[in-house]
Amino acid sequence: ARTPIPAGARQIGADVTYRVGLKRAQMVRFVIVRPKYAVDNEEECATEFTIAEPPHEMIPRGVLSPSGLAHIIASKWDRHVPYNRLGRFFMESGYQLPVSTLSGAAIRAAPLAQDLVLAMTTHAQEIAPYLAIDATGVLLQQPKVCLRGHVWLRYIEDTCVLVSFTKTHDS
Questions:
Q1: What DSSP line would sit under 35-78, residue for residue?
Q2: Strand, helix or coil at 155?
Q3: pTM
Q4: Which residue has the higher pLDDT, 158 or 39?
Q5: C-alpha dihedral, 40 to 44 to 49 to 50, nearest 10°
Q6: In the β-sheet with 160-166, what is the strand arrangement from edge to edge?
Q7: Quick one: pLDDT at residue 24?
Q8: Whole-Å CA distances, 56 to 65, 66, 113, 165
Q9: CA 65 → CA 4, 20, 56, 137, distances in Å?
């Protein structure tokens, strides 16, 4: 939704932000320009300021575009690249993204990933001629305590392998 320009407003500048993204084999910086407007109220001897709404983002006020976020998640969870090495990758392209920013982005993207995994699971159950499931008991070590849980592997032939964790065996 676009922010309506108030009647009698004059543009006084713009709020410019950037998102780091990737194109095939190169890093890019997307520029987001949000115009700023001022409306003079001569009766009250005051000026009101308005700025356009930001575009919808996967992570509000984040520094990563969807392609940058996808790169971080795929690098970390598919290729097992540590965040400090990912940080060096961005640094070599001129972008200083601390480990805390990279890990925070992955954590904040988790709800988006849950929707994707649910869609993958539903699709797999619809197309699978059969579903092979293995629930393996595991011990989770935490300070001063060892918890039990179960890792579930769901194999869908020629489609995917889905891995999940539950605290109980009846899930």
A1: EEEEEEETTTTEEEEEEPPPPP-SSTT-SB-HHHHHHHHHHHHT
A2: strand
A3: 0.60
A4: 39
A5: -90
A6: 132-142, 145-156, 160-166
A7: 74
A8: 11, 11, 17, 32
A9: 25, 6, 11, 38
